[in-house]
Design brief:
This protein is mainly alpha-helical and 288 residues long. It is built from 7 helices and 3 strands, in the order H-H-H-H-H-E-H-H-E-E. Strand 2 and strand 3 (280-286) form a beta hairpin. The protein is flat. The two termini are 60 Å apart.
Length: 288
């Protein structure tokens, strides 16, 4: 009877030990999966958005590989697939490094060219102003002769004209610089407006569906690395078609703008508001 109790106690200890090891192994597997998902996310973020090196295709391959790692597949099969993908990843990294080096070389060449051009222009302007000033000084020295008053007056007139030419040239250069600066600012403003229009609903002024899709995709990826809660709300205006049919689309548009403004006033700064389509709106609530 004592032997039976002893063997039963030993078996119980072995079971507890096995369960503890299983729990530890599961925790390690979960940690490895989370780390792999984070590394895959970092790889996608590492890739430049350049069509020339087919970065979109690379990101798709990384996403597919990340999904396979999350699935319950046999380790040997995963190892074989990863060996195939590993070479593709290394090839893309080398391709991107080559692309960056080529662009850096081109940028250095452009900078060198602009630097030399500016240096030459500066030297030319300096020499021009120096010659004008030297000639002016010489003419002024000649004009000090009291016995040739007519020449003196004529020379003074020439000096005034030369100085006027110099002043006009300086004013022209200043105007060109201001004009160029204004064009650069205008281009930057137009670029920002184009980006904003691509992500903004034309009627309500809030984000559109494309902006919502991009935001959710980025948010879901980020959540695989840094877990944080979010809630998604869908808002629909009841019987909106009846409003359009009875009062017209102009009133219907005003209703949509009013609803969008009400939602905008109600959400927090970190929340995301978009028009999903028609009379439907979407709000993404952070940490909720």
């Amino acid at each position: 009877m004592k032997r039976l109790k002893g063997s039963s106690s030993a078996a119980s200890m072995d079971a507890k030990s096995l369960l503890a090891e299983a729990d530890l192994l599961k925790a390690r597997c979960d940690m490895f999966q989370t780390s792999i998902a984070a590394l895959m996310h970092f790889l996608k973020a590492f890739a430049l958005d350049v069509a020339e090196i087919r970065s979109d295709r690379f990101k798709e391959q990384i996403q597919q590989l990340a999904e396979r790692f999350q699935e319950a597949e046999k380790p040997k099969r995963l190892a074989l697939e990863f060996e195939d993908e590993k070479e593709k990843i290394l090839n893309f990294i080398e391709c991107q490094q080559t692309y960056i080096k080529d662009r850096e070389t081109e940028l250095r060449d452009i900078i060198d060219l602009l630097t030399k051009a500016m240096a030459n222009l500066n030297v030319e302007n300096r020499e021009f102003y120096q010659r004008i000033n030297e000639q002016s000084e010489k003419i002024i020295e000649i004009s000090h002769l009291d016995d040739i008053k007519r020449i003196k007056n004529a020379l003074k007139l020439e000096v005034d004209q030369m100085r006027e030419i110099v002043n006009l040239k300086q004013d022209q250069e200043h105007r060109q610089i201001r004009l160029l600066a204004g064009q650069v600012q205008s281009l930057q403003s137009e670029l920002e407006q184009a980006r904003s229009k691509a992500m903004t609903d034309g009627l309500t002024g809030i984000y559109n569906r494309q902006a919502l899709n991009d935001y959710l995709a980025e948010r879901i990826e980020r959540n695989q690395v840094m877990n944080s809660d979010l809630s998604l709300m869908m808002i629909d205006i009841d019987d909106f078609k009846k409003i359009n049919d009875k009062y017209g689309h102009l009133i219907g548009d005003r209703v949509l703008m009013a609803v969008a403004q009400k939602c905008k006033n109600a959400i927090r700064g970190d929340d995301f508001l978009a028009r999903y389509g028609g009379e439907e709106f979407t709000i993404v609530l952070e940490c909720a």
